[in-house]
Amino acid sequence: MNYIDDFKYTISMSNKENQPSGLVFTKVNYWIMLAGIAVLILGFTIMSMETAEYGQGFLGMTLGPIIVFLGFAIEFIAILYKPKKS
Fold first, then answer.
1. Closest CA to 81 of 37, 43, 24, 38
2. Measured between alpha carbons, how far is 36 from 79 in angstroms, rounded to an integer?
3. Where exactly are the structural domains of the chain?
4. What is the pLDDT of residues 12-39, one digit of tens each?
């Protein structure tokens, strides 16, 4: 075996060891993501329920955007959450 073949063999073996073994997200991540989507939908629904002109009331300018922000924060947590391995 020459040096080039040895190098190719080493590279192919190291690539097999570094490949991920399965999905990136777990079931818990997907449930957190679904909760975040539900909170986002709730926030946008609250903003659309505003009766003041151009959405300038409390629901459209304060409560709705706060809930939408919380929904995006939940999505961010869902992406970064890594369950503890036992």
1. 24
2. 11
3. 22-80
4. 555 555 555 678 899 999 999 999 999 9
